[in-house]
Amino acid sequence: MASVASIGFIGGGNMAEAIIKGLVRGTFPAGGILVAELEERRRTLLEERYGIRTTAELDEVVRTCEVVVLAVKPQAVAEVLPGVAAHFSGEQLLVSILAGVSTAALEAHFDGSPRVVRVMPNTPALVGAAATGLCPGQFCRHEDLLLVQRLFEAIGTALVVSEKEMDAVTGLSGSGPAYVYTIIEALADGGVLEGLPRPTALALAVQTVLGAAKLVQESGEHPAALRDKVCSPGGTTIAGVKTLEERGLRAALMGAVSSASRRSRELGGK
Prior knowledge:
This protein is of the alpha/beta class. The chain contains 12 helices and 8 strands. Helix 1 links the parallel strand 1 (7-10) and strand 2. Helix 3 (58-64) packs across helix 4, helix 7 (166-174) packs across helix 12 (249-267) and helix 8 crosses helix 9. The relative contact order is 0.11. Residues 163-267 form the Pyrroline-5-carboxylate reductase dimerisation domain. Belongs to the pyrroline-5-carboxylate reductase family. It catalyses: L-proline + NADP(+) = (S)-1-pyrroline-5-carboxylate + NADPH + 2 H(+); L-proline + NAD(+) = (S)-1-pyrroline-5-carboxylate + NADH + 2 H(+). Its EC number is 1.5.1.2.
C-alpha cells in the first residue's frame, strides 16, 4: 500500500479531529476522509469545519475505506471491534490510537492476518506539531508502516518504536502536553505573583517554552548544556534553578511520565 485514497475514522472525538485537521491542512483531500460518529452534532461540526464526510454507521467506514483508524476510548474496544472485524478485509490497514491496547490484542479480534499499526499521537496535531510514536503488528508490511509514518509526519514528528516502548511513549508524549500546559500556567502565575499583568505573563510564559523547545530542536545541543549557558555564576537563573531542584520539579515530571505509562499498561490489561 504505497499510497492511499481513503481514510476512515471510527470515532470523531478530539484526537480524531486533531489528526483530521492535520491531514486536511497538509496534502490529503478532505473528500477522502470518512468519519463514523454516533453524535449528530459532532458529525455536523466535523463536516462544516473540515469539509469531510461523516456517517452514523461504523460498517460504512470499514466497507469503503482503505485505511481504518480506530479512535474510540480504550474501554469501548470490546464493543466496537466485532463490528469492525465483521467487514474488515485483508486489503485494508487498521491504525489504532487506543492507549494501552497492543497490536496482538487487536489482531486477536480478526480472522486471518490483519495488518495493524499502533499509533500514539498527541493533541498538538491540531497545529501540525504532534509527537507521534508508532509500531507495527506482526502482519504489517513494511510499506504499511512507511505509509502511516508519512501520514502522521503531515501533522508533526512521527517515530517508529518497538511495541514494548509504546506505553512509555504514551506516558511521555501522549500525555506530555498536559504537563507542559501546567508548567506554562505555573510560570505565568509566577509572573503575576511578581507583579506582571496576567495577559503579559501568559504571553511571556508561552513564548519562553516555545522558544526554549525550538532552541533545543534546532541547536542539537543537550538541554542541560543550554541550561548551563544561561546559569551565570551567582545570577538570577541559577537561583531559580536551585528552587526547582529543591522543590522536586525533575522528580515530579519523571514521576508523571511513569504514572501515565503505568496507567497505559493498566488499560491494556498488562
